Amino acid sequence: MKRFAYIRVSDKDQNVDRQIITMKKEGIDDRDVFIEKMSGKNFDRPKYQLLKQLVRKDDEIVFDSITRMGRTMNETLKEYEWFVENGVQLKFIKEPMINTSNEQEDIIKQAIQRVILTVLAAFAEKERIDTKIRQAEGIQAAKDKGKHLGRPRAVITPEFIQAYNQWMNNEISAVEAMEKANMSKTTFYRKVKEFKGK
């Protein structure tokens, strides 16, 4: 029997340290810890798929929570069943009631376990959907207030003005002006148009 850990967060800015500490407490070797910074909306994740290829019957995969496995109810249930059918044990730190075992279990206990799993997976999907809705509402509210979203807009700096004047006087090329202004080609010409408009 070999033990693995799967750690997932939804995006690159999120921290995985807490989950790593949890897996260290479980005694899982660092080389057997699979870390992924991707959404749980589907299972097309490279590290997760690699882990599925590596595990064998009687191996165990440890998750911090069912939400780390996935956040779509039907797909999560399918993945869970795949591991059960292949004799791979699953351990969920926060939801021990859905941990699997290769031992013969009472049919009623198995049924209750599947009901709990379905409810937890449904809540995980709902939470993901609700988060997306809140994000969309927040973005729309910010737009309605005239707030700029995304990367900060490039401003007309003294460096740009100097580079612009040198370029207009044929003292430097457009490429050199862009470098001096520290702007991309698109941004530079947009700011040229804006500057001329003033």
From TrEMBL:
The chain positions of domain Resolvase/invertase-type recombinase catalytic read: 2-146
Which ranges does the record mark as transmembrane?
Answer: none
Q: Which CDD domains match?
A: SR_ResInv
The record's section on PROSITE patterns has: RECOMBINASES_3 (PS51736)
> Could you give a GO molecular-function term held by this entry?
DNA binding
Which Pfam families does this entry report, sorted A to Z? Answer: Resolvase
Task: Please state which protein family the record places this protein in.
Answer: Belongs to the site-specific recombinase resolvase family.
The UniProt entry, under PANTHER family, shows: DNA-INVERTASE FROM LAMBDOID PROPHAGE (PTHR30461), RESOLVASE HOMOLOG YNEB (PTHR30461:SF26)
* Name listed for the protein in its UniProt record: Resolvase/invertase-type recombinase catalytic domain-containing protein
